[in-house]
């Protein structure tokens, strides 16, 4: 990658993030990197979606995970596709779109994400299905009942952890290694 | 009499409060395991709550760039984040 391309990409990402420094402290790539270093028998990780109300389309994004999982498709492909395309679904980006237009955008993402490949119309019908809506609400209520009010929030062996998006790979490894003894 | 009334009101409020805290039992345990073969008896169990629209949570090329274990590559004019094995997991943008 030449320097000008790097600069262009960085500038574009800064525009996306509105508060660009947030982009430097993203939790999932760090956590995923940490998990790659441990055996599945030592460390287990569960990703819960918790849509925050001030991100207007977060509930549909979360509902999409329920739809994908129930179709037997790899749900992590949806989670990562959502992260990768997050700017397109942001409040600013969708300010002049109707709710149905945004639903179609979600459908297109489900159809174009290789391992998911659910037809857009079918995906949109599913996110408007009351059963998936209810399942997503139940997930949200469970998170609330555990005291979650922001993201990312981490529990380690059931206890609320001080880990947040600023944690580095080294901090995670220190915590896990201590527990593994 | 007044204290009895206060006690009754308090008990009612407590009962209503408890009812309001009831969460429907989901049809299966919540969340998505990673890796999919994650062991239920593993010594360390991490539960993460992520908002897919939250910038703090997202997969970002910048986070990838600053982490020693991650890299960003330009591949056929597609910007993709890749994991340690070089496997792309998300196209971020066309440049």
Main traits of this protein?
heterodimer, A: 181 residues, mainly alpha, 54% helix, disordered N terminus, B: 95 residues, alpha+beta, 3-stranded antiparallel sheet, 2 helices, 5 strands, 26% helix, elongated, disordered C terminus
Helix fraction of chain B by DSSP (H/I, runs of at least 4): 25-40%
- Please indicate the percent range of residues of chain B in DSSP E strands (runs of 2 or more): 25-35%
Low-confidence stretches of chain B: 59-95
What proportion of the residues of chain A is helical, as a percent range?
Answer: 40-55%
Described by strand count, sense and barrel closure, the largest sheet of chain A is: 2 strands, antiparallel
Helical run tally of chain B: 2
Overall 3D form of chain A: globular
Rounded to the nearest angstrom, the distance between the terminal CA atoms of chain B is 77 Å
The radius of gyration of chain B is 24 Å
Kindly report the greatest chain-chain contact and the residue count on each side: A-B, 80 and 58 residues
Runs of chain A with pLDDT <50, length 5+? 1-25
| Multimerization state | heterodimer
Main pleated sheet of chain B: 3 strands, antiparallel
Tell me the total number of β-strands of chain B. 5
Strand order of the largest sheet of chain B: 3-4-5
Rg value of chain A: 18 Å
Q: What is the mean predicted local confidence, pLDDT of chain A?
A: 85
Strand order of the largest sheet of chain A: 2-3
Overall average pLDDT of chain B:
61
